[in-house]
Every structure is written in structure tokens, then in C-alpha cells.
């Protein structure tokens, strides 16, 4: 009889170092690595320029960022923000400069374990740095640098209908079905373009088929970790996003429940890496349409781009277009903002407002109103108001004349409006 061990084996110091890394996402690490590389390149070129040009009073910078005192950081980073440029010599947008300092701040806090707050809107501590950053951001905005952001285009309902009707979305073959699920889940569950799609899995899945109290079947997505909820100490009390996609009874072809069921029925029983989106087989093997391995990261990331390109739609379409389209459609449908927040998984209404976008149709209507075109609803309201005023006026004149004489008699009342003269005879 071998006694089963309750606790795991003692961990090493190397394993403990991984715990430190859990405070920061991989994307944050990649960002600060890029900023540090740019900083090092700037420092070398600046020292070279100072030596060649003999700038009076400008010292050489020889210390690494993690070795600098707070006074040195204030001095050096102020000059870095004022002088840094892209590789082609173009200036960085103000927001990028802000993010550079933010990344350096994260690096100093996490990697160097220094309790520093570089960005201070009051400019009390790192005054030179914050003054330089504030000046540069205002100057770049005044020059129009970085004001146009290359956001993912919205996908209109007309475009989506075209895709369904012309076979660019559907379930006729393995690749088409898998790509269609990426599309449907992106719209229905407002998944973020990258990691949230890749995080979907079969075992201990975020997806489950359920029924409500009335017996209506739906596919439920329950978030595990995301950009705004990583499951750690800082997000301990954050409510997890839970979204339902109900069965489409009027259009089964587009039903998320039926598409999910069909996909699951064609995947192999054993899946090596527990990924949800699988590579399609060149030819189906009976009921099995897919390999037991995950779809490639690049293939998954370009699903929407490739669908829209094949359909002939021009523009900047990405998987993120689905998430933006979800928020915009709910907004234009009059759905309360709180419900939109719960669907997208934002932690505040301010966050979701960045995703909502007024469609071209509504913008055109707004422009027409400002140019003197009266919307149909407004025309109806004006007509009803005029009729109400007219009826009240007639009743008041009639009642007043009845009170004066106390008897009935023939009378004509003439009421003139801005466009019509109406004559009413009553007894």
C-alpha cells in the first residue's frame, strides 16, 4: 500500500520567481522591453551628440534606469520625452509618450521593486518629467499628431447579411463552420480579439448549453480570466462576465446554439492541447472534420480580415470589429448601458463608450436635421400638437358663446394656421 501524498513537493527558488511575474501581463512585459530598447538607443545617440557638439552644461548619461536616483530619473526622462523619435524620424503621438513613461514606471515597480510614481498630474515630485510630458502631449495634439486612430471598422448588419446569404458564413464545411463560430462568438459574447478566443477550451469549458426557467435553450459563456479580470488579488471582488446566446428559432442557419452543437459533433474525442478552435482536416474522416490540434494563432487572428477581404469589403476589419459591432448594435437598439457593460465585460460605462460608435446612418440623420430636414417622428409630433391646439381652440370658443346666450344657434368659426384656413360650422 502506497500512501498518497497530500501536499506537492517543495518548490524551488526558480519556481518562486514565477510568482513575481504573475503581477504583470505578458503584453506589459513586451511593451516595457520595447521602451527600454528605445531608451538605450536614445541614450547612446544623445551621448554621442553631446560629445560631438559640446553642448554646454549637458552631462553624459551613463547609468541604467534601474540605477538612477529619483532626481536623475526626473532629469533624464524629461529629456527623453522631449527628444525621442521614431526610427524614420517622425514624432510619436502624445498618447504613446504617456504610455512609454507608464511602461518605465511599471518596470521600476515590478522588476526593480521600487515604489515610484513617475506620472503625477499635479507635477509635485517628478516636476521636470511631468512638465515635459504635459507640454509634449499638448503640442502633439495641437499639431494633429496621433489624433486619427486606426480603429477596427464596424461591421453593419447589411454586410453581415450579405456574408450569410452568399456563403461567406455558414456550416457547410469544416473551415467555414469553425470560422463562423469565431464570428458568432465575437458578436454574441463580445470576445476580445486575441487571448479570449484562444482561451476557449473543451475541458472545463467556458461554454455550456443550458435552459432558462421557461425551457428556452441557450449557449452560455462564463468568463474565467480576461484583460479586466485576471482572477488575482486585485480582481477578487470583480463580478465575472456571463452572457447568454439564445436559440434562434426564426433563422436556424444563424443559430449560435445549433452551430455550436454541429461543431462539437465533428471534433475528435481526444484533443491534445484542449483548444476549442481546431485545424480543419483536408477531407473529413467520417464524422470527424478536424485534427486534434489547435488552429494556428495567426489563422485565428485573421479570421474576420480574411472573410471580409474575400467578400470584397474594403477597410480595416479585424476580429476586434466583432466586439465593437456588438457594443454598437446594442447601443443603437436602445439597450441600457448597464446591460452593454455586462455583455462586453467592461468594468465601467466609461470603458464601453470607447467601443460604442454611432453608425453612418444615424450620423447622416443628425446632419440632415441640422440642414433643415425634419425627421418623420418630429413631423408627426408637430401635426398632433397642431391638431390638439386646434381642437382646444374650437371647444373654448364654442363653450364661451354657449355661456353668454344660454341657447343653441348657428355659428361659424374661422381658424387660420400658417398654411391652412379652416371653417367649421356648428349649432
Concise structural overview:
GO terms for molecular function: DNA binding. This protein has 427 residues and is mainly alpha-helical. The chain is 48% helix and 10% strand.
Provide an overview of this structure.
This protein is mainly alpha-helical. The chain is built from 16 helices and 7 strands. It has a 3-stranded antiparallel sheet, covered by helices on one side. Strands 4-5 form a two-stranded antiparallel ribbon. It has a two-stranded antiparallel ribbon with strand order 6-7. A hairpin with a 4-residue loop joins strand 6 and strand 7 (421-426). The model is unreliable at 412-427 (pLDDT under 50).
What is the string of helix and strand elements?
A: HHHHHHHHEEEHEEHHHHHHHEE
* Percentage beta strand: 5-15%
Question: Main β-sheet: number of strands, strand sense, barrel status?
Answer: 3 strands, antiparallel
- Roughly what is the average pLDDT, rounded to an integer? 83
* Uncertain spans: 412-427
| Backbone structural class | mainly alpha
Distance between the termini: 111 Å
Number of helices, counting only DSSP H or I runs of 4 residues or more = 16
Measured as a percent range, the helix fraction is 40-55%
Principal-axes shape call: globular
Strand order of the largest sheet: 1-2-3
Radius of gyration: 32 Å
How many extended strands?
A: 7
